[in-house]
Design brief:
Blueprint lengths: L2 H8 L19 H7 L4 H25 L6 H5 L4 H21 L4 H18 L3 H34 L5 H18 L5 H21 L1 H23 L7 H8 L1
Helix pairs in contact: 3-7, 5-9, 5-10, 6-10, 7-8, 7-10, 8-9, 9-10
Amino acid sequence: MTTRNKRKKSSRIQLWTEDDPPGKPLVSTDDDKKNNFEPNPEQFLLTSVTFYVVMTAFSQTGCTYLNIHPDLFAQIFVFNPDMATIWSIPLLLSLAIILLVDERVEFVKEVKELMVDGVIPNVAPTGANGILMLSLGAGIGEEALFRGFLMPLLSNGILERGLGGTEVATYASLGVTSVIFGALHAITPAYQIWATLAGFLFGWEYLNDGLGSAMFTHCFYDFIAFAFIILLWGKPKQPSSSSSEAGKE
């Protein structure tokens, strides 16, 4: 063998090790990303609550700066606890159907996978107090923005520009904010539709029973939803009988 050939051989670089044999994909797969995902419940809770506080403060500042009446904090005290509980019934029924259907329907399966992989590992360890803080943050912050600030802003804008009467302004603002609400919750296409309908329900409740009622319904539903999703979907999967028999062999 010539010296030149030896140099060629020695210049070859081995691209794998015993733990990384040929044929193993160099690009990380979705399973690899899931395995590398490390939940951080404390950071998740802190970031989420901070985000909702900023959302509420932004909404109040917007109402004050743009001279939107009634004022956001004044609207919060418009609260009917009896009606707020009744408004939560359609949401709770939809939650019950989703949990009963489970993975038998494709769009529910997609939502469950997202919850199991990302939400539950970050929310479950925070316990009841963490779930309560997240529910209060989402219920107050999102309702303050969409119903307390954006709906009056759009409605007043339509009236001031002479684009329609009171009814047109009311229903237009309700429809637009519901669509935006759904789009910002679009973790899957089906969930976007559900969130749009939920946004419409919160908006309709706001118009009939006040912002405080819509906030209560939103907070109450989120707390119940988090609790049951963690309880029913947070359980580790039991190995099937076939896989356990294969392991014994």
